[in-house]
């Protein structure tokens, strides 16, 4: 039997990598390289929204900002790169718990990844709200990659962290 | 704004935005996440034909004071980040877009391919 040359070994390895990608899907090597990076570990595969193929959840996504006015709670979620409302789902687990799910687009099929930091695929975030809200009459806008949700409060109340002076009674 | 993480109000952590670099045929495609920024808030420059720099300022634009946010996970303030490209590109042939908070530059590779004999 002939001893394999380094060229043979590389060709064999390339063939095996090709089979693996064919078997595991186009995004397999991207997922392997991402999983190897600290701080971006897999948070468990879940089915993507709107019929998207199952993908790894992007941990900590999306970052959010929340404030309350007297009549509504405003939640802004950073979700860059979305192309339409079908890539986002918003649910109310309880009147104080909002769940935002999204599917973040990744690199175009066929592109070779040279450097990757932007999360892609399914992500979900549960946000505890500062006031109870009603699931009806919610307004949404997507501006510069931010999803802004304006959620009507069930009962009007003080704005978040509103300052109240506690007066010391005079003697 | 580099990674989703909490920053206490008032503490500015200038950091670069996350970015992706892919090769699509004879093009390098650079994508930079800049959600919440307007085109006037940042600029991307190419120094020579190998070095990309993105710099700008993430402005606070909510109508309430920052102390009034009950949850704040964005970082505000100036940022700057430089990336060395693995191959030289032709700046004159670049195609730029900025949609949904993602800056994208499609840069034609300016390098001669070497024919290999196996």
The parts of chain B where pLDDT drops under 50 for at least 5 residues are 1-14
Average pLDDT of chain A, to the nearest integer?
Answer: 74
Main structural class of chain A: alpha+beta
Q: What is the H-and-E element order of chain B?
A: EEEEEEEE
Query: Rough shape of chain B?
Result: elongated
Any chance you could write out the topology, listing elements then pairs?
The complex is a heterodimer of chains A (171) and B (118).
Chain A: H1 6-24, H2 28-35, E1 45-46, E2 55-56, E3 64-68, E4 72-78, E5 88-94, E6 97-104, E7 112-115, E8 121-128, E9 139-143, E10 146-152
Antiparallel strand pairs in A: 1-2, 3-4, 4-10, 5-6, 6-8, 9-10
Chain B: E1 19-24, E2 27-33, E3 42-47, E4 51-58, E5 71-72, E6 77-84, E7 95-99, E8 102-108
Antiparallel strand pairs in B: 1-2, 2-8, 3-4, 4-6, 7-8
Textual characterization of the structure:
The complex is a heterodimer of chains A (171) and B (118). The model of chain A is unreliable at 16-55 (pLDDT under 50). In chain A, the strands form 3 sheets. In chain A, strands 3-4-10-9 form a 4-stranded antiparallel sheet, with no helix packed on it. In chain A, strands 5-6-8 form a 3-stranded antiparallel sheet, with no helix packed on it. Chain A is elongated. Chain A is of the alpha+beta class and 171 residues long. Chain A contains 2 helices and 10 strands. The longest helix of chain A is centred in the first third of the chain and has 19 residues, at 6-24. By secondary structure, chain B is an all-beta fold. Chain B has no helices and 8 strands. In chain B, strands 1-2-8-7 form a 4-stranded antiparallel sheet, with no helix packed on it. A 3-stranded antiparallel sheet of chain B has the order 3-4-6, with no helix packed on it. In chain B, a hairpin with a 2-residue loop joins strand 1 (19-24) and strand 2. The radius of gyration of chain B is 17 Å and the shape is elongated. The interface between A and B is large, with 42 and 35 residues. Strand 7 (112-115) of chain A pairs antiparallel with strand 1 (19-24) of chain B.
């Amino acid at each position: 039997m002939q001893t394999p040359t380094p060229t043979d070994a590389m060709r064999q390895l390339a063939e095996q990598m090709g089979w693996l990608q064919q078997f595991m899907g186009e995004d397999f090597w991207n997922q392997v390289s991402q999983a190897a990076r600290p701080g971006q570990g897999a948070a468990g595969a879940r089915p993507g929204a709107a019929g998207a193929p199952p993908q790894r959840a992007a941990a900590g996504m999306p970052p959010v900002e929340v404030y309350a006015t007297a009549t509504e709670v405003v939640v802004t979620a950073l979700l860059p790169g979305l192309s339409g409302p079908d890539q986002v789902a918003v649910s109310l687990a309880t009147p104080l718990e909002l769940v935002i799910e999204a599917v973040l687009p990744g690199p175009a099929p066929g592109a070779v990844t040279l450097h990757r930091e932007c999360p892609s695929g399914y992500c979900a975030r549960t946000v505890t709200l500062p006031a109870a809200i009603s699931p009806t009459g919610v307004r949404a806008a997507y501006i510069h990659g931010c999803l802004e949700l304006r959620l009507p409060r069930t009962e009007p109340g003080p704005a978040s962290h509103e300052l109240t002076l506690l007066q010391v009674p005079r003697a | 704004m580099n990674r989703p993480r909490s920053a206490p109000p008032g503490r500015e952590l200038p950091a670069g935005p996350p970015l992706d670099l892919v090769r699509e045929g004879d093009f390098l495609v650079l994508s930079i996440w800049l959600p919440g920024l307007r085109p006037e808030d940042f600029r991307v420059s190419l120094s020579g034909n190998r070095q990309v720099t993105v710099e700008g300022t993430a402005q606070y634009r909510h109508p309430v004071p920052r102390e009034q946010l009950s949850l704040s996970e964005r970082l505000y303030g100036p940022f700057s980040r430089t990336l060395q490209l693995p191959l030289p590109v032709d700046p004159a042939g670049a195609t730029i877009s900025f949609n949904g908070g993602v800056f994208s530059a499609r840069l034609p590779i300016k390098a001669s391919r070497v024919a290999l004999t196996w």
